[in-house]
Amino acid sequence: MQTHQSPFQGVWIPLVTPFSGGAVDGGALRRLVRHFKAAGVDGLVVCGSTGEAAALDDAEQLAVLDAVLNEAGAMPVVMGLAGNHQGHVLQRLAAFGTRPLAGILAPAPYYVRPGQDGAAAYFRSLADASRFPLVLYDIPYRTGTTLETATLLSLAAHPNIAAIKDCGGSLDKTLALIADGNMNVLAGEDLQSLSLLCLGGSGLIAAAAHIRPDLFVAMHQAVRAQQLDLARRLFQALAPVIQLAFAEPNPGPVKAQLGRQGLLSDELREPMPAASAALARRMDAAVAGLNRQFPCQ
């Protein structure tokens, strides 16, 4: 089992970035944080791929982070840190200063495909330089780099590498990381969240958990309590919403539903498209069905 028990466990939301008239909407951002705190989620990830970080400049990313930290209180907050210019990434890391971050979520350098040795050296340089624990982000379909099991097991031994967001798509790799126990394993693919929890993973970072976060929290708690029939029932009810959340480019479908809930304006930055009207209607129907089965409290 994992030796790192906190804070990298439970249900984490990879927070969307609300926009209004092209600018970051700080009011909506703070409203989202309050909403997820009330739902009982365990932590927030800021400026990840769901947060459209690639469309935010450095100053905007820091402004988003500060708005979330100011509202989050004691809730743990992890900051995304992605790039392929190592010097620039390290400068951005230093700019986080003494902010009270729970950790840094970092994928391999995208596009450049540095191989196993290069990727491992990159992660070690971040972990050595960081005041905050590192959460590895294994997502080869975005970065172009597949992190091998041996590479990840070696990195897990680093004292400042605490967890991994697992989007690697390899059950063998996932099992090896859980069995190794040197870092917490968090599901990064929403449809694999229940299976990973049942295998001994510590939690999930789930974009679809923006929608009915309370039910994702209940599912995690049911697994922890060995109430597996309840956990399966919750997951099976959530599955249609999860599938629709990724039927078009993320976070378009999630933002469409959050807009319908009055939590933000359904606005994305180009080139990211908004969800189609047809998909938004299908999401409405799926969420309505979910709400009938598990009424909002």
UniProtKB/TrEMBL annotation:
Pathway: Amino-acid biosynthesis; L-lysine biosynthesis via DAP pathway; (S)-tetrahydrodipicolinate from L-aspartate: step 3/4. It catalyses: L-aspartate 4-semialdehyde + pyruvate = (2S,4S)-4-hydroxy-2,3,4,5-tetrahydrodipicolinate + H2O + H(+). GO terms for molecular function: 4-hydroxy-tetrahydrodipicolinate synthase activity. SMART domains: DHDPS (SM01130). The record marks S49, Y111 as: Part of a proton relay during catalysis. It is found in: Cytoplasm. Pyruvate binds at T50, I205. Keywords: Amino-acid biosynthesis, Cytoplasm, Diaminopimelate biosynthesis, Lyase, Lysine biosynthesis, Schiff base. GO terms for cellular component: cytoplasm. It is an enzyme of class 4 (lyase). One of its GO terms (biological process) is diaminopimelate biosynthetic process. The active site is at Y137, K165. It holds the Pfam family DHDPS. Homotetramer; dimer of dimers. Catalyzes the condensation of (S)-aspartate-beta-semialdehyde [(S)-ASA] and pyruvate to 4-hydroxy-tetrahydrodipicolinate (HTPA). HAMAP family: DapA. NCBIfam families: dapA. Belongs to the DapA family. This is 4-hydroxy-tetrahydrodipicolinate synthase. It comes from Achromobacter insuavis. The lineage of its organism: Bacteria, Pseudomonadati, Pseudomonadota, Betaproteobacteria, Burkholderiales.
